[in-house]
Amino acid sequence: MKIGIIGGGIGGTAAAYALLRKGFDVEIFEQALAFGEVGAGVQMTPNAVKAITGLGLFDTFLRSAFFPKAVVGRNWQTARENFRIDLGEEFRAHYDAPFIHVHRADLLDLFVVGLPTGICHFGKRCTGVKMTANGARADFDDGTNFSADIIIGADGVRSAVRGSVFGEVDLRWTGHQCYRALVPTGGVVDYVNPDSTFWMGPNAHVVTYYVKGGAAVNIVAVTEASEWVAESWSTRASRDEMLKDFSGWHESLQTLFSNVHEVFNWGLFADSGLKPAGIPINYRPPFRFEAGHYSNQLPA
After folding, report:
1. pTM
2. Are residues 259 and 145 in the same domain?
3. Which candidate among 81, 158, 181, 200 keeps its CA 20 to 30 Å from the CA of 281?
4. Where does the FAD-binding domain start and stop, copy by copy (predicted)?
5. What is the CATH number of the domain that holds 183?
6. Going by C-beta distance under 8 Å and a sequence separation of 6 or more, which residues neighbour residue 267?
């Protein structure tokens, strides 16, 4: 069976790696000119870690992983502990897997290094997918196309695959923005606890946690925005903007923010729901899509 995957991010490469292990003929089409991920962290719950284990990658995964001691909620000004979920041995035994922090680039590399040479096609922006007599076809903006038994869409928030199946999705601006930053620390520092910490404040929250085996701290800081902010992981902001928006928050956060050298921000959007469009409802489309980074829930 031939399978085409649109999108070479974490979702697309993970799907390719898993399908190749089962003997499928897989090709990836990525619009960028090379594999790449933003400088941000990922919190891996036990179910996600089990998926990594099922792919035979757990030992490699551990090389860049960080094991938080707990998930902790704190008051934005006093650091008073509002809740704590211990992630120690009892937690691991209950869920049969740990809770792990990892850098997105390290997670992507985990899958990319296991992909055969020649199955990845770069500079290929998909414009849509169509049904064919024998499966599906993906069309690209360079005039080429690719036919397969199955097309998997892993092409992000503005997915061309999803648009072909469900029609254009109306993304609604939520009035919130998210700052993202990564602070190299070289190890655990006294102003950042070795936990997944949620700082909860008025109309805002901050999440901090270690990645890269404890060598860096990932920051996700969400607040209301007076002006529309683009849905993009590459829009730059400034440290001063972030410090201003979180003025008066706990001194540990002020110290952490003061060590930031590069800040990005993106707008948070919600969709209006997916409704089939353009595909006969009595026909099962050989499509699958995985497209994220917009939600009516604020990110962590």
Report:
1. 0.86
2. no
3. 158
4. 3-165
5. 3.30.9.30
6. 173, 174, 176, 177, 178, 225, 228, 229, 230, 231
